[in-house]
Structure formats: structure tokens, C-alpha cells
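Quick check before the chapter quiz. The format below is the same one you will see on the exam, so make sure you can read both the input and the output lines.
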Amino acid sequence: MADGSMKRLKRAPVEIAHRHYQRGHKQEARQLCEELLLQTPNHVEALAFLGVLELEAGQPARAVERLARVVELAPTGENLCNLGLAYGRLSRFAEATEAMARAVQLAPTRAELVYNLGVVLLDAGDLPKARLCLMRAADLRAPRPTARAKASPAPVRPRAGAAAARGLRLARLS
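Here is the expected output.
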């Protein structure tokens, strides 16, 4: 069997689990991933998916166990972000901040990772750093002008993303 075919076979149960989840059948999704882990204990996608399910189910301690293992196997920005979210739900802000900062180091232009770091910093009480992260996340999400837009005679307006981040910060802190 070709290497690509083998990878597709290993991904198929997780893809089916995602479809179950999207249809609202979370227990079936969980069961498929758990069965896959019995066959392949270090299946990163199944572990990550179960970690997110644990987080959604209000079980952040169990999510941390699974997601920490995922990060050991595959330290991607998304996996580190999910681990940081789980730590944050446990009010373990130092670990949450560390995981989120590592995620941003791996993918510094992903607005959602920068935003989540800002939220964790806000929850941890580090308002100046939180403000910077939230504004940076808004800037990353702001539409970039195209060559055609640059040539247009329309007046220049402030980017909505940065203003939204300042508004979020003010609304959250007041």
C-alpha cells in the first residue's frame, strides 16, 4: 500500500469523527477517537480532537492531560493554543501564557493565536501586554489594501481592526 493511502486510512476515522461532531453527535465523535487511540495510542489528531472535546465538556484538567501529550508529539501553533486555553480555564495563567506565547512564536501572523494570547494576558491581569496583543491581532485581521485600492481617490480611514481592539479593551476593563 502506498504511503499516501496509509495516511488517508489513518485520517479517515478522525474525519468521520469531525462530521459526527458537526452534526451534533459528540458522543459518536468521542467514541471513534477513543477507538482509534486503542489501536494507535499516539495518534495526534485523535488526541487533539479529544482534548478539545474535553475542554468543551467543561473538563479542562482532562483536556490538559491530552493536549500536553499532543504538544509533546506535535508542537504546532494550534495545539499549543488549545493547551493554553485549557490551562486558562484552570486559572493556571503562567502556563497558559507560556503555551500561547510559544504558539505565537511558531505562527506570528495568525491573528487568532495573537488574540488568544491577549485574552490570556488580560485574564492574568497583565493589561499593558494584553492591550498590545489585542491591537496586534486586530491589525493582522484588518484588510490589506490592494494595488487598485491604493490608487483610488477615496479618503484614508483608520483601520477598523485596531479601533475594534481598543474598543474591546475598554469595554472589557470598564
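If your answer matched, good. Confidence is low (pLDDT under 50) at residues 147-174.
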